[in-house]
Amino acid sequence: MVALDVPLHGYAIMQKVEAISEGSVVIGPGTLYGAFTTLEKQGLIDKVSEEERRKTYALTDKGRRVLAEHVRRLAIMVHNGQLALSILNKGAVI
């Protein structure tokens, strides 16, 4: 969902996900469009335009709230992981 900070079509989203993950996440079209269906049903994204074969999607207000909550949870997990590593490394600063 983070790739939808601005309205984008599917191929652009796949490229953006790969770029922001520095290549560690590559999403195929089947996976992406399946996710779109689920996210639309949950009210997290909307199709904002449809031209020929290009559908453009954007986050809804609910989607933005859910994304913010996921980012908050991930930040907590990263913090706790850093603490655990610090303990394992006997106090070494990470």
Automatic annotation (TrEMBL):
Pfam families: PadR. Residues 6-69 form the Transcription regulator PadR N-terminal domain. InterPro entries: Metal_resp_DNA-bind_regulator, Tscrpt_reg_PadR_N, WH-like_DNA-bd_sf, WH_DNA-bd_sf. This is PadR family transcriptional regulator. It comes from Massilia glaciei. The lineage of its organism: Bacteria, Pseudomonadati, Pseudomonadota, Betaproteobacteria, Burkholderiales.
